[in-house]
Amino acid sequence: MSVDARWFRVDLRAWNLVLVALCTLSVHATTHAQVLRWGADPSGGAPFAFLDPNDPARVIGFEVDIMEEVARRLGRRLELHRADWLALFDSLEAGRCDVLMNGFEVTEERAQVARFGAPYFRFGQQLVVRAADASAVRSLGDLAGRRVAVLNGSQSVDVLREAGFADDAILQYDDSLAPYTEVALGRADAALAESIIAAYYAAHDPRLAVVEGTFAPGEYAAVTRVADAALAAEIDGALAAMKADGALGEILQRWGLWDDGQSTLGTAKGSPQEVFAQARGPSADGTAADDRGGIAVSEPGSGAGSVAGAIAPALLRGAWMTVLLTVIAMPLATAAGLGLALARLSPRGWLRRAAVVYITVVRGTPLLVQIFLVYFSLPVVGQWLFGASPSFVQAVLEPFGGAAFLTLPPLFVGALCLAANYAAYEAEVHRAGLEAVPAVQWDAARALGLSRGQSIRHVIAPQGVRIAMPAIINDLNSLIKDSCLVSVIGVTDLLGVCLGIGKARFSVPEMLVVAAAVYLVLSIAGDLLGSWIERRLRARGFAAPQGSAVRQGNAAKGAEA
Question: Cβ-count burial of 308 within 10 angstroms (0-12 exposed, 13-18 middle, 19+ buried)?
Answer without folding.
Answer: exposed
